[in-house]
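Translate sequence into structure tokens.
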Amino acid sequence: MPLGIPQHGATGYPGNGVLAQPYYVRESQRFAVDQERQRHSQALYTLGEYTMFCLMWHIQDYENGLVGKCPLCSESPYAEAYKQPERNKCPNCFGTTFDGGYKALIVRPAIFSDTDEGQAYQARGVVNSDDLDMESTPDFRVRSGDYCFRSTGDRFFLRVPQRVTLRTGFATPFQRTMAVGYNHARASMEDPSTVSYLIPPATQDLTTILSVHATEPVSFSQFEVIRAPLIPLDDLG
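Result follows.
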């Protein structure tokens, strides 16, 4: 509890025991969050591009009972004994060890920073590295290990996600209630030989889907797959 400040009383400073309370608890202003979200989304639709996000299953989803282990590579006695899948590049779980591999394929507007490709020596040999900054809408959550696919056919591994929440009053900044730009992440271009290229749709179909042109937002519901909440259930705001 904050301490009060002595007031001058009738008998002079330091007062007659009356304390002034200089603090107040400000209510959150939902209208301010709604307006800022609208501006942010308009910027994405003005300067961005349609991008497909592949949100993978993670251990938190398994612990919350949202998904089971992959029946092809992670439910055998051998996989249980060695605590690792039997198959490399499993066509069902895409290396996650969880059934289906991904919990959602969604299309959202996104903005990418500009960069030029470079070469780097890694465990896989010489690869063309291309790291970008990516930003999208706040109605889903990206975690390290997810992917995004561009209309160019390039596929990116997402890591180091960050958030922006708008504080307008005294309250816990949950994503559902205060997020403005939640999905900021580093996007690293994937080599065609890596596991992400097993995830549908095929590159030619992806380019066709994301290259649509219109003067107002387009619905991609026929191409989307959502198997679980896009925002974790523990975000109660």
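Note: The mean pLDDT is 82.
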